[in-house]
């Protein structure tokens, strides 16, 4: 069974009362999240494909992966399935009770459908905690896909320094973010292309504009350069862009 076909279709912003206010990872979002993210984030499936490939490059035993902002566990499930012959330690962290409840529900559902899958998925442990304070050590890879953008900008350097200290010497962090362009005209053009992408995914003008309003001040994107400077300042010796789509970027930062 596919990782993502247990989610309901995302109709949230066609139904939700616009007065409700800021976007939150609550029960309403958790219910439709897998559909929402796969239709709202360009190259999301490619990022998921990239994760096990990066993990498999490492000569670690075990390969310890810490997914900060793991949501419904999609990346960890992909990893468990893609690398059945590697010794994996898969840890997910999220501060949303609703998202983790959905994650656990998904793990049970998938495990009940296939005993081989069940054994692989047993490697996954998830914790409800804040990524700003969650403590871990000796990680091979830290994943932070579309999560850093939700952390207050002032806390981001501290979070990244702590992650740096929690990695093995040749470990890395994979960070995916929505990004802004420093030239306003170019930024507007890229955002227009993004809204066009969302229309192609079946979202209406109303849904697109309501979600944009709800994310205002909740999701704070930086430029590619600002992100790269922040990663370097946290100690990462080598930082590169592995994937880029108009206003989205995926960075690999090597310790
Ligand atoms: C866009 S989702 C991440 C998607 C996920 N990484 C994936 O690839 O499917 C952002 C997640 O970060 C979580 N989050 C936001 N701020 C957090 C914090 N301070 N501590 C822990 N989790 C946080 C949210 O609850 C949400 O599940």
Q: What would your notes on this structure say?
A:
This protein has helices spanning 12-15, 27-40, 44-57, 74-82, 97-113, 115-121, 156-166, 184-200, 205-215, 224-233, and strands spanning 63-68, 88-94, 124-128, 139-145, 167-178, 238-245, 248-254. It has one domain: Vaccinia Virus protein VP39 (Rossmann fold, 3-Layer(aba) Sandwich), CATH 3.40.50.150. A hairpin with a 2-residue loop joins strand 6 (238-245) and strand 7. It is built from 10 helices and 7 strands. The model has no long low-confidence stretch (mean pLDDT 93). The chain is of the alpha/beta class. It has a 7-stranded mixed beta sheet with strand order 3-2-1-4-5-7-6, sandwiched between helices. It is globular. S-adenosylmethionine binds at residues 25, 37, 69-71, 74-75, 93-96, 99, 130-132, 145-147, 150-151.
